[in-house]
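Q: What does the assembly look like in three dimensions?
Context provided by user:
Components: two
Sequences:
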Amino acid sequence: MANSVENQNQHKTLDLPKPKLRCIVKLGGAAITRKNELESINEESLGTVCTQLRKAMASSPAARAAGMDWSRRKGNPINASDLDPVTEFSEIGVDSDFIIVHGAGSFGHFHASRSGVHKGGVHLPLVKAGFVATRISVTSLNLEIVRALAQEGIPAVGMSPFACGWSTRERNVASADISQLIKALQTGFVPILHGDAVLDDLQGCTILSGDVIIRHLAQLLMPDYVVFLTDVLGVYDRPPTDPNAILLREIAVDEDGDWSIVKPALDHSKGQDVEITVAAHDTTGGMETKIQEAAMIAKLGIDVFITKAGTEYSERALKGEVRHAPDDWLGTVIRSVRH
Amino acid sequence: MANSVENQNQHKTLDLPKPKLRCIVKLGGAAITRKNELESINEESLGTVCTQLRKAMASSPAARAAGMDWSRRKGNPINASDLDPVTEFSEIGVDSDFIIVHGAGSFGHFHASRSGVHKGGVHLPLVKAGFVATRISVTSLNLEIVRALAQEGIPAVGMSPFACGWSTRERNVASADISQLIKALQTGFVPILHGDAVLDDLQGCTILSGDVIIRHLAQLLMPDYVVFLTDVLGVYDRPPTDPNAILLREIAVDEDGDWSIVKPALDHSKGQDVEITVAAHDTTGGMETKIQEAAMIAKLGIDVFITKAGTEYSERALKGEVRHAPDDWLGTVIRSVRH
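A: Here is the predicted structure of the complete assembly.
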């Protein structure tokens, strides 16, 4: 895949001191939404993810969550004159050097597929309409995720790639001014980005996936580690629903970006190959693309952990406690051969 | 007020061909939300505003609205496999050379006031929490307005100033990269911006008002005209609830930005002065600031119309049919003395 780091952005980034970035987290669409039900959030999963994120980011173990979503409760009109000044915020209690990127799941994918946004042609009425519909869908999900994080006391701020100026050229990142994202990080906020409908220099428009966004950010900002939270335990050698599916525990990546399975050792003479499931509606490439994006991050020396959201395994991965592929940790580690 | 057009932005804008911009519209928070009820939209008013906007933007009188909000109906789970590809979009039917900016109304103002975001100090836990809460509130309103416009067939795309990189210095616009906004316009979308919590170079953070955003955009992009939609007929010489209040029909602005009331002719010997209502909770300056911002736009030769949303007067103003201050048009025109 062509080098997507645009020179102008590198220059812009060099102007600013490189922020301390501990981790970039991908919230997979399948992990936090109900896949086959249009625009339906998996509330329980999202809640657990937020709790685990807060624990991973906590600056002091005893700090209690200070809710930052002060919205009106559904159906409960509040007379504004009843609101008192807020005085009980003595501390935030989190160190916020995380970036979070989420997928669309059952928000956006359907709208994009129906109208062909990923294929371009934004001048066409149907595609233009689909672009608008897709953005409404993904930004509504973004808002709900920001709310959930804020309720957990995480100082989350939504930053939609389209609005921030991310654009593509033949579906690779062409420009992405991350100076505002860096300032937000340095001010102590947690930027929440997402897969989005964006403008494309050649084909007019396309869908920019959360995975490509993460890879681009990792290349520019060099986090300590990256965690992908999904709805399955990790990468398998065949569709996970197959009873014979084997969890790939460790994948090593060399300097050219080529990857091989280290653990478990697969018997190639029996023709065991990795057959990756690609969901039909996922317009951005599915699991195989995810491994490729993860490999491009790992070859920089950044460990990537893919595991199931809301488990003890995701909790340890988010805290940065997982090294290599421990026997008592279920998930996939993708790392450089040099690590 | 200091010149807020930052050199770097002028340079960036000169790189791009200036887009054709017919009108910038301000949707006043008081016009589309219920002022004293926290986070409550005035659905009827918003609906009428969107219908009028569509009529003003229609490229062909007979074009029917093609809804672009494909969300799940509240409470109605949709099985995604039931969705068919959309084929009935033959035309959009609007010429989209408008920009819309909305205020916060009962979304955001309370959160900002409670925590003092407008006064700065983003390193303080309370202010940081208030910043997050304010952004959640204003972006949720932005989403609802984008939905309402999209349902009316207007290709609206939300562009939050904080995410787009708008920032202030001592509360004046310090930087605002509008290149993405220009690209969106040129692609045929209608950008929807809003008053937002932003970073401030000196005081850490503040609230950037929709009125300042409009003035900044007008200076850079030179629209044909600007319309402010409010909850009263225009600017009055005293609080409009006063039975003796007089509607100021026409205000003329000279090259220095000084303004005077042209119509009606006020008797200064009786000490009739303009006493402008400033709502206590409005953290961005109220009506007097609005006249000053409007005057700064008018002195560039751009006519500004302030009138009540959802009336025949707003409909005519949006269509660009109002010249000077006709006897049968109720509202306030603010124009250059040279017009």
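Follow-up: The first strand of chain B starts at residue 23 and ends at 27.
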